């Protein structure tokens, strides 16, 4: 496998690639534009490797919320719900793969439901050999938020960020890029006038009360959980930087892929206070 210095994880958020307020509705034109940007960036940066993840948006989150799948799967009815979420998450993944393949990206999916086992909502085992082999042969692994079997809950759901967190400990990417519909992490959501440009483990206490969840159905915790999980990760993986930014701005996506700062940066720097600015 290639050195981690050129490995980048990028997540295409469910709010970005689907209409999260309309069940099972993909934003195919957005997916295609992102695919083209990723393809062009790989041409411009031939040493870069990508591992792509995507959310479930109005596919998996809608059915997951209806069945309470993340909390546990025990009854016969629960397991039917588990299957429905699995089908919905898989359907969106097939759309993503189809569009990405059409623009020439060598993508191959690794379904978390088939490769991952959890215990009480946390990854216990994750079969990484296939992902590592795909990377070493110039392919682009694609993972996504999905149902998984769980030794305590029967079944549950793991978000892309939770899967990234486990993968990053082994694969050690240089950057994790989280592309959504917001330009970064807001200090005053839903007013959205003040963006936090830098978050570190030492500044979390200052901003913790300002962080909010998602404006749409999100069974995996929304923005607050995303920030907390990424802060934990940057403390565990030396030199790792995480960016949260808008995937709807083509130039911002290109900048993030080129190693420039965009949106909100999460890292393990020691600073005196969180930096923010008003739009």
Report on the architecture of this protein.
This protein has 279 residues and is α/β, with parallel strands linked by helices. The protein has one domain: Carbamate kinase. It has 10 helices and 15 strands. The protein has an 8-stranded mixed sheet, sandwiched between helices. The protein has a 4-stranded mixed sheet with strand order 5-4-7-8. Strand 4 and strand 5 form a beta hairpin.
Topology:
Layout (H helix, E strand, L loop, with lengths): L6 E6 L1 H4 L10 H17 L4 E6 L2 H11 L8 H27 L4 E3 L2 H4 E4 L2 E5 L2 H8 L3 E5 L1 E5 L3 E5 L1 H12 L3 E6 L4 E2 L7 E3 L1 E2 L4 H4 L14 H15 L4 E6 L3 H8 L6 E3 L9 E3 L1
Parallel strand pairs: 1-2, 1-9, 2-6, 3-6, 4-7, 9-13, 12-14
Antiparallel strand pairs: 4-5, 7-8, 10-11, 11-15, 13-14
Terminal residue distance: 42 Å
Which oligomeric form is depicted?
Answer: single chain
* CATH architecture tag: 3-Layer(aba) Sandwich
Question: What's the alpha carbon Rg, rounded to whole Å?
Answer: 18 Å
Instruction: Trace the largest sheet across and list its strands.
Output: 3-6-2-1-9-13-14-12
Low-confidence stretches: 271-279
- In total, how many beta strands? 15
Q: Helices and strands, in N-to-C order?
A: EHHEHHEHEEHEEEHEEEEHHEHEE
The CATH homologous superfamily: Acetylglutamate kinase-like
* CATH classification, class level: Alpha Beta
Strand content: 15-25%
How would you sum up the major sheet?
A: 8 strands, mixed
Task: Assign the CATH topology.
Answer: Carbamate kinase
Secondary-structure-derived class: alpha/beta
Mean pLDDT across residues:
91
Give the overall shape, derived from the CA principal axes: globular
Number of helices: 10
* Helix percent band: 25-40%
Domain unit count:
1
């Amino acid at each position: 496998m290639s050195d981690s210095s050129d490995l980048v994880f990028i997540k295409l958020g469910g709010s970005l690639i689907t209409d999260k307020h309309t069940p099972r509705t993909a934003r195919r034109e957005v997916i295609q534009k992102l695919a083209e940007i990723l393809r062009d960036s790989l041409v411009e940066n031939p040493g870069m490797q990508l591992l792509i993840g995507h959310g479930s948006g109005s596919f998996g989150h809608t059915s997951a919320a209806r069945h309470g799948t993340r909390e546990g799967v025990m009854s016969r009815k629960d397991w039917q719900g588990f299957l429905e979420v699995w089908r919905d998450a898989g359907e969106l993944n097939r759309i993503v793969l189809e569009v990405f393949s059409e623009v020439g990206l060598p993508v191959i999916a690794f379904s978390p439901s088939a490769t991952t086992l959890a215990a009480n909502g946390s990854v216990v085992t994750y079969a990484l050999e296939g992902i590592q082999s795909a990377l070493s042969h110039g392919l682009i692994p694609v993972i996504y938020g999905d149902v998984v079997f769980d030794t305590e809950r029967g079944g549950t759901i793991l978000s892309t960020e939770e899967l990234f967190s486990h993968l990053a400990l082994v694969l050690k990417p240089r950057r994790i890029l989280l592309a959504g519909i917001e330009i970064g992490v807001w200090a005053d959501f839903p007013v959205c006038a003040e963006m936090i440009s830098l978050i570190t483990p030492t500044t979390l206490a200052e901003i913790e009360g300002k962080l909010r969840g998602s404006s749409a159905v999100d069974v995996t915790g929304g923005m607050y959980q995303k920030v907390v999980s990424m802060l934990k990760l940057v403390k565990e993986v030396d030199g790792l930087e995480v960016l949260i930014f808008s995937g709807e701005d083509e130039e911002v996506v290109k900048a993030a892929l080129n190693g420039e700062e965009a949106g909100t940066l999460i890292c393990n720097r020691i600073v005196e206070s969180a930096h923010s600015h008003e739009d």
